[in-house]
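Why do we bother with a discrete structure alphabet at all? Because it lets us treat a fold like text: something you can write down, compare, and reason about line by line. To make this less abstract, here is a complete entry for Succinyldiaminopimelate transaminase. Read it the way you would read a sentence in a foreign language you are learning: slowly, and without expecting to understand everything at once.
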Amino acid sequence: MNPLLDRLNPYPFERLRELTAGITPNADFAAISLGIGEPRHPAPAFIGQAIQAAMPQLAAYPATAGTPALREAIAGWITRRYGLTLNPLTQVLPVNGSREALFAIAQTVVDGSRAGATVVCPNPFYQIYEGAALLAGADVAFANADPARNFAADWSQIDDATWAKTQLLYVCSPGNPSGAVMPLAEWQALFELSDKHGFVIASDECYSEIYFRDEAPLGGLEAAAKLGRSDFKNLIAFTSLSKRSNVPGLRSGFVAGDAALLKKFLLYRTYHGSAMSPLVQAASIAAWSDETHVVENRARYRRKFAEVTPLLADVLDVALPDAGFYLWAGVPGGDDVAFAQGLLAQYNLTVLPGSLLARHAHGSNPGAGRIRLALVADEAECLEAARRIVSFTKSRP
């Protein structure tokens, strides 16, 4: 067996199951889960129709690079969303969801045979970053969230010696779990570090289309273009249809950016067997080509957050995020695990303890004392969950 498999840590939801295994939820309440960030709004009907219309295409093997039509549809969306013009043949590549691509990019760019090979990522973080790094043979360095900056990563915690060994940096903007959006000045600092040390930046932007401010979140490619980096050197952006279009089961997204990196990434994926189903490609073309359903989806989230956030702010340390569909809430007493266990036992409500999303680094676990609430259900269920949290919090000594 690959000995690197032994370096992997249990997934947060596996750890949560272990922590709640002996708990019998109160059967007086119907079960509600705010634990998993799985979009539950209805998928647009036209996506299913596109799949049905494409059924004859199942008679042929799909190309790993995707059809020209799909890559052009993605490039067209990038132009409309960010005002950028990318070459669909060299700077865009469809992927089977951002998760598998975020994992695969580490296997492509990391040279684990180099002494001290390092991957840097935010903390808390999406655990795929860590797993990808470990299985690529690298060490992981964490930049803890800064509460004073809406829990955005504090990259200054990474010293020069670590940056010098870094081969890949994962960033997530809008962030999971805080929803924080990286400003242009932060991008500029990271690009300068990348130029100095030669590492690749993997920009996870899967929450980019759910936001609560008037201005859409700044994307990595957009930031690069604003700073005169139109070649997107050492930068790849990762985007998914899962949250944008409510189709997590479709497993469709794309990567875009540095053409030289994408050429190598395509080579890796060709051998890995990462071709997207023709049905998924047809559905993806339809999804990337329509913005009406995205606007409607964003409006639904805005209504939910406008209802739920003030209720919870009376009992928890929580505020409306910049973007995403999570609330990152501080709990009274600071014990996030005990809070989640008690909430499940008394009110049959599942939330994710923040400490399970982070690692102990720089003297602390930056997720401790907070919980992540995924407001992915309909408005009525999210409101009911909020009322239970309020009742539970007020009942605690």
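What the structure line is telling us, in plain words: The longest strand covers residues 139-146. The CA atoms of residues 143 and 156 lie 8 Å apart.
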